[in-house]
Amino acid sequence: MRNDSRLSRMLHVLLHMARHDGPITSEAIAAMLRTNAVVVRRTMAGLRDAGYVRSEKGHGGGWMIACDLEQLSLLDVHRAVGGPRLFVIGNEEANPDCAVEQVVNEAVEDVLSEAEALLEKRLGAISLAELSRGFDARCEGKI
Amino acid sequence: MRNDSRLSRMLHVLLHMARHDGPITSEAIAAMLRTNAVVVRRTMAGLRDAGYVRSEKGHGGGWMIACDLEQLSLLDVHRAVGGPRLFVIGNEEANPDCAVEQVVNEAVEDVLSEAEALLEKRLGAISLAELSRGFDARCEGKI
DNA sequence: AATCATGTAACAATAAAAGTATCATGAATT
DNA sequence: AATTCATGATACTTTTATTGTTACATGATT
User: Fold this and answer.
1) How many angstroms away from the CA of B72 is the closest CA of chain A?
2) pLDDT over 80 at A103, yes or no
3) From the alpha carbon of B4, which nucleotide's C1' atom is closest?
4) CA–CA separation, A13 and B47 (whole Å)
5) What domains does chain B contain, in order, with CATH numbers?
6) What value does the mean pLDDT take over residues A123-132?
7) Is the CB of residue A54 inside 7 Å of nucleic acid strand D?
8) CB of B77 within 8 A of CB of B9?
9) Cβ of B125 less than 7 A from strand C
10) In sequence order, what DSSP letters do the residues of chain A get, joined into one string?
11) What is the pLDDT of residue A96?
């Protein structure tokens, strides 16, 4: 599989939407992400279902933010796009009755769980608003 | 992609080898893992190149442990089998010049790096010998 | 010399995100 | 009311890396 870049892409889009008045079309977003409008709709659908964005059809339609970015965390976005599998590595399950396999899997599972918990904790601690402020700070540095 | 179960599989094999006198053939290992002997050779090749196991051809040949399991960590095995990519999620790189993308990617990258460091630290802290003792303990509990 | 086991190469199967084409639906403009 | 614009939904294909499989060469033991 390729990298799952849905989280990264949606963060990118949300920050752009945050500093843009009015709706943005899937086509415009696709151009920003260098991808296809269908891919955009498919991924944004998760955010819409979670209530983080809204979409309007027809003339002047497109996507709009529908929540407080101060309250929206990276973890929220991660989950909204499918909360996909985090790790490439995983257990084998050839012989669930094999005590050796059980010991191995528990050890690996423990480590992965701990890392996952840390990851979710960190993602949950960053809001989209903070990211947006980080962007502002970076721009000021460049002026 | 499926789960990468190479680490898990090799740990499984090493523990079995640790409590088995004499070499074990790829066929026997394949049976334990419910897979193919070629897959076994392919994966074990990494361990052999790292000097953790040895292989002998011909009659009575097969695979043997060639190191001190007390000194062999899960991280060593992870790296020996290819030290594969850990995370499914990753960054997009549509517009390296886009400051928004940069801010997003840095934030995601920071979180992933921290989780990766934790993962490697934990994997590095567990030796195969410890796993083996964990297996012993489990067996005693069942008697 | 025959057999056994690894080593290697080449290719198919698998899984999940991403890319693409197409058509239906609904809203705004004319 | 008709046209246009934009999303919604479906049904593919492409991509990428592990895994599975077949086939054959190489070397060691009997």
Assistant:
1) 14
2) yes
3) D18
4) 44
5) 6-142 (1.10.10.10)
6) 97
7) no
8) no
9) no
10) ---B-HHHHHHHHHHHHHTSSS-B-HHHHHHHHTS-HHHHHHHHHHHHHTTSEEEE-STT-EEEE-S-TTT-BHHHHHHHTT----BSB----S-TT-HHHHHHHHHHHHHHHHHHHHHHHHHHH-BHHHHHHHHHHHHHHH-
11) 85
Mean per-residue pLDDT, A75-98: 91
Q: What is the pTM of this model?
A: 0.91
Q: Which of A20, A50, A47, A46 is nearest to A32 (CA)?
A: A20
CA distance B129 to chain A (A): 12
Burial A75-103, CB ≥16 within 10 A → b, else e = bbbbbbbeeeebbebbbbebeeebebbbb
Residues 78-117/B with CB < 7 A to strand D: 82, 84-85
pLDDT digits (tens, 9 = 90+) for B83-108: 788 999 999 988 888 999 999 999 99
pLDDT over 90 (residue B47)? yes
